[in-house]
Design brief:
The chain is an alpha/beta fold. It has helices spanning about 5-10, 45-50, 60-70, 80-95, 110-125, 140-145, 180-195, 225-235, 285-290, 305-320, 320-345, 370-380, 405-429, and strands at about 25-30, 35, 40-45, 100-105, 125-130, 160-165, 205, 235-240, 265-270, 280-285, 345-355, 355-360, 385, 390, 395-400. It folds into two domains: about 5-55 and about 320-429, Aspartate Aminotransferase, domain 1 (Alpha-Beta Complex); about 60-320, Aspartate Aminotransferase, domain 2 (3-Layer(aba) Sandwich), CATH 3.40.640.10. Helix 3 (about 60-70) packs antiparallel against helix 10 and helix 7 runs parallel beside helix 8 (about 225-235). The relative contact order is 0.16. The structure holds 4'-deoxy-4'-aminopyridoxal-5'-phosphate.
Length: about 425
């Protein structure tokens, strides 16, 4: 009898990566815990890549989804869908974007694609600025703005893209400068890039307030606000990719852009709002959203099941003030991670906000250490903790538990992680 792994490898592509030497099949979840096919329990500090935002099997959400599933799964957007309209009203209100309209998709990739489609139509230009070390999805257009070689299997794209410095000070030629100096240098580069590399109008700049796949790279507060001032001089739209940073995860703000003193022209969302249901979307000012000259439809986008579930999830986030919990638990976790960095030289940098904490692991000479990162992944798994990894070199651990994390769970998971790093670092000496 072939194993699940063998069957997986036979029929699924090799470029679809799996975690762990012995991959895990997760079959059940409850709150912040998940169980594998052999009955082992794990504390989940990755939440299905920041997606099961309020945890598993939350009764209030399960009930809504079950009721909707029993009533109707799909109608298409050719008909009025009440939960879709209600969710759009709520997201438009929460977005902070004036006169906002919402278009629903089924994924983050499709949200990126839509934002780029709208921006290029509005500005009648296919020129786009993106950020180095970014990730925005897997389609041709979203890969065009993805600045991470390990996730870019093609250079083909409909866009003309230029990449700006995006806030990864730790691994930049400007490391060691003050935040203010660093921002001045990046701004100089942005202006220079616009003057030398672009021609005529540029449609938009797309950026993640905190880079997700790139390893929770966190620019200085205000960084993108200063960039937007330059963009505004030329009418270039700013698109905030909130796929990982939205819904209060960063603690300080409901959206990641809040740390930057700006209001974006458009924002994209996905992942957490569906708590596992396939939903994403774009929010834009009406004058921007209405730029498409032809019809456009996503058959599954905003379907009754996904929007009913997302509405229940969003209400849960608000009713339990999970943004405040993300701030409290994130601060608690961060204090321990900073202490770990102070005593363990293999921790190069701790960064992030709220329940989005990245730990960059390095060798003694400061070079990225993906082997140590793999060892930490295996150690934590053996101790019953699921975590994520990212970064250009795969040497950044990503801790991003559900926003419902309790203090006891926060301490338990962080302690398992600390011990795993210390054990793996001691072995690597
Ligand atoms: N934008 C960001 C910031 C992401 O992290 C991701 C997914 N990791 C995407 C877009 C693409 O989302 P999806 O995988 O749902 O297509």
């Amino acid at each position: 009898m072939p194993s699940l792994r063998e069957r997986h490898d036979r029929v699924l592509p090799s470029w679809l990566p799996l975690y762990y030497e012995q991959p895990i099949a997760l079959i059940r979840g409850e709150g912040r815990h998940v169980w594998d096919h052999e009955g082992r329990r794990y504390l989940d500090f990755y939440a299905g890549i920041l997606t099961t935002m309020v945890g598993h099997a939350v009764p209030e959400i399960v009930e809504v989804v079950q009721q909707q599933a029993a009533r109707m799964l799909h109608t298409s957007t050719l008909y009025l869908i009440e939960p879709q309209i209600e969710l759009a009203e709520e997201i438009a209100r929460l977005s902070g974007i004036p006169d906002a309209k919402v278009f629903f998709t089924t994924s983050g990739t499709e949200a990126t694609d839509t934002a780029l489609l709208i921006a290029t139509a509005k500005r009648r230009s296919n020129q786009v600025l993106a950020v180095r070390n970014s990730y925005h999805g897997r389609s041709f257009s979203s890969l065009g703005v993805t600045g991470t070689s390990s996730w870019s299997p093609t250079s083909l794209t409909p866009l003309s893209v230029h990449y700006v410095h995006g806030g990864y000070k730790y691994r930049s030629p400007f490391a060691g400068r003050s935040d203010a100096e660093y921002m001045d240098l990046c701004l100089w580069d942005l202006r220079n890039l616009l003057e030398t590399a672009t021609a005529g109008d540029v449609a938009c700049m797309i950026a993640e307030p905190i880079q997700g796949v790139g390893g929770f790279v966190t620019p200085p507060d205000g960084f993108f606000g200063r960039m937007k001032e330059v963009l505004d001089e030329r009418g270039i739209l700013f698109v905030s990719d909130e796929v990982q940073t939205g819904w209060g995860r960063t603690g300080e703000h409901f959206w990641g852009y809040g740390a930057h003193g700006l209001v974006p022209d458009m924002l994209t969302f996905a992942k957490g709002v569906g708590n596992g249901l396939a939903i994403g979307g774009v929010v834009a000012r009406a004058d921007v959203m209405e730029s498409l000259s032809g019809h456009s439809i996503s058959t599954f986008g905003g379907n009754p099941l996904a929007t009913a579930g997302a509405l229940a999830t969003l209400r849960y986030v608000q009713a339990h003030d999970l943004q405040a919990n993300a701030l409290a638990m994130g601060t608690r976790m961060r204090a321990r991670l900073d202490a770990l960095a102070a005593r363990c030289p293999r921790v190069g940098e701790v960064r992030g906000k709220g329940l989005m904490q990245g730990i960059e692991l390095v060798r003694d000479d400061g070079a990225p250490d993906p082997a140590l990162t793999t060892a930490v992944m295996e150690e934590t798994r053996a101790s019953g903790l699921l975590i994520g990894r990212g970064g250009l070199h795969g040497n950044v651990i990503r801790l991003a538990p559900p926003l419902t994390l309790t203090a006891a769970e926060c301490d338990e998971g962080t302690e398992i992680f600390e011990k795993a790093v210390e054990r793996a670092a001691a072995r690597a000496l």
